Amino acid sequence: MCSTANYVLPLRRTCEVLATPSRVCGGVPMPSTFPGARPHGAPQDTEMDVAWQELMALSELQEFEVPGEGYEPTQYQTMEPMVSMRGYGTAQTHSASPPTACELISADTYNGCYSEEVPVCHHQGNNAEATYGHSEYQLNERMHLVSSQALPSLTAHREQMNMSGNSQGHRRASTFFSQGPSQHMQWTAHGQNSHLRSADDLESDSGLSLGSSPPLASPDNPAGGVPGRQSLDSGMTYSDGDADGMTEHARRAHATSSNTQADALTLRSVKQHGQAAVLNYMNSDFGVSSRGSSQYNIYTKPQGSASIPAPLSRDERRATSLKIPFPMEKIINLPVDDFNELLTQYTLTDSQLALVRDIRRRGKNKVAAQNCRKRKLESIVHLERELNQLHGQREHLAQERLEFQHSLAFIKCRLTDLYTEVFSHLRDEAGQPYSIDDYSLQQTPDGKIYLVPHTTMSKREQC
DNA sequence: GTTATCTGTCATCGT
DNA sequence: TGACGATGACAGATA
Question: CA(A370)–C1'(C8) in Å?
Answer without folding.
Answer: 14
